[in-house]
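Please check the following for our workbook:

***
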Amino acid sequence: MSVSDADIAFAKELFSGLGPLTSRKMMGGLCLYSEGTIFALLHSDGTVWIKGAGAFQDKLTEMGLTRWTYSRDGKKEVAMPYWRLPESALDDPDEAVDLAREALSHL
């Protein structure tokens, strides 16, 4: 399953306040970049995930956001440096852009 054109358009519009964005499809999802730096992912199910690094990881965890984890073939679960964007940010581009700017400042 891959991301839909509608989901891609939504994500790009949500973060449009950052300025020009680029994207790249990867593993059925989409990576979002600002000035060549990845700051978010769009999964094939339409969920948006913000990248966390440094102290920003702690903030995302304190906000109660879900961290992306996966496991393959019954192996140990692996945590990736991405947290699911809060529902409130999906309805508020200003909040989404603020989180994206903070993510970018820690990368």
Observations:
- The chain has a mean pLDDT of 95.
- The chain has one domain: 5-105.
- The longest helix spans residues 93-105.
